[in-house]
Amino acid sequence: MMVEITEDILTKVIKERKSATHKGNYGRILLIGGSENYGGAIIMSTEGAIAAGSGLVAVATHSMNLTALHARDPEAMYIDWRDHSLPNLVKNMDVIVCGPGLGTSAFATKVLVMLKDIISKKQTIVLDASALDLIAKDHELLPFNAGHIVLTPHQMEWQRLSQIRIPFQTDSANKTALNKLEAEGNIMLVLKSNHTHVYDEKGQVFINPIGNPGMATGGMGDTLAGIIGGFVAQFGPKIDSILAAVYIHSLAGDILYKSNYVVRPTVISKILPRLMKKYSGLN
Ligand SMILES: NC(=O)C1=CN([C@@H]2O[C@H](COP(=O)(O)OP(=O)(O)OC[C@H]3O[C@@H](n4cnc5c(N)ncnc54)[C@H](OP(=O)(O)O)[C@@H]3O)[C@@H](O)[C@H]2O)[C@@H](O)CC1
Ligand SMILES: Nc1ncnc2c1ncn2[C@@H]1O[C@H](COP(=O)(O)OP(=O)(O)O)[C@@H](O)[C@H]1O
Ligand SMILES: [Mg+2]
Asked: Which residues form the YjeF C-terminal domain (predicted)?
């Protein structure tokens, strides 16, 4: 059975903040990605995570991205992705987002091997873009020890990973492929398209009824990966957090599309805090 995601998910998930809290209560997230050519991808993910409200945001990227990252997002902490203390930082995180602009170099593969070794049951990992392409070539790179794994492929990335060609990506074929990947039944799949389908750990399928073609802009998925990570960090590693992230990303896109021919991913992040405020404290 397929369930449509509705606006209600936002009031259900987005909670009003309590006074006696601090940044440690809203989740720590580390985003890993951004090679020489794709620095923008990891910056857009970072903006999604910050706007979504993660308490602490850190970024591991190529050193050439440092100035641009800090100029745009001083809220984010930075580590050179070649720094030997990266594994220690990973250990202290609630959520890791890996892949936007990561590229598919030998070094990128090493990063995935390190994550697989280090990640633990207390953590959630969101795998996007290049990370998925590397895993498509070697399924052993999937970090099965994570408490929860969230895969966020677009249709071509899912084709590479599942071996199902795009026209044949039906819910039943996708669920079968997902079951084959799973060792522990801890994978959630966000299969992105004009109407994204989300598969939970029990095989339930959810469809996103909103969104628009103004959102067909490079960086839109990078931004979503950051928002998903931010929602999981803050609201917990549950399917509802992911559904709310997918829905609000498209809702922001639809609001902007009313008066803009093209929706810039960075502007989605810009309006996200205001939109979240509207839905908070209503439940
Ligand atoms: N500013 C930056 O730094 C940015 C950096 N980025 C980084 O670039 C890296 C490569 O990622 P990527 O997504 O650009 O390339 P790839 O995986 O080859 O996919 C494109 C191919 O798939 C096909 N396609 C079919 N269906 C599709 C669908 N529904 N949605 C999308 N595509 C679909 C499509 O077919 P076409 O119709 O164009 O022939 C095309 O052949 C990765 O690290 C990423 O993070 C980007 O995030 C952008 C902003
Ligand atoms: N025509 C469309 N209608 C609705 N949403 C779209 C459309 N085109 C793209 N999107 C959304 O934009 C995002 C694109 O993700 P992705 O292809 O990974 O982008 P990128 O890698 O460039 O950041 C997805 O969330 C997808 O649902
Ligand atoms: Mg992408």
From this structure: 6-279
Tokens for 269, please give them.
Answer: 């992040």
Residue 47: which of 23, 24, 71 has the closest Cα?
71
Q: Is 209 in the pocket of ligand 2 (CB under 6 A)?
A: no
- The CATH architecture that domain 2-279 belongs to is 3-Layer(aba) Sandwich (3.40)
Cα gap 113→269, rounded to integer Å: 31
Q: From the CB of 11, is ligand 2 less than 6 Å away?
A: no
- 28-32 and 205-207 as β-strands: parallel, antiparallel, unpaired? unpaired
Determine the residue of 31, 35, 38 to mutate for testing ligand 1's pocket, defined as the one with the most ligand atoms within 8 A of the Cβ atom: 38
With a 6 A CB cut-off, is 192 part of the ligand 2 pocket? yes
Q: List, for the chain, all residue ranges whose pLDDT scores fall below the cut of 50.
A: none
Q: What was the pLDDT predicted at 283?
A: 61
**pTM of the complete model beyond 0.90:** yes
Domain ranges of the chain: 2-279
Ligand 2 proximity of 219 Cβ (cutoff 6 Å): yes
pLDDT digits (tens, 9 = 90+) for 211-262: 999 999 999 999 999 999 999 999 999 999 999 999 999 999 999 999 999 9
- On whether 195 is known to bind a ligand per the annotation, the reply is yes
Helix 155-162 to helix 171-181 angle (10° resolution) is 50
> 209, 4 in Cβ contact below 8 A?
yes
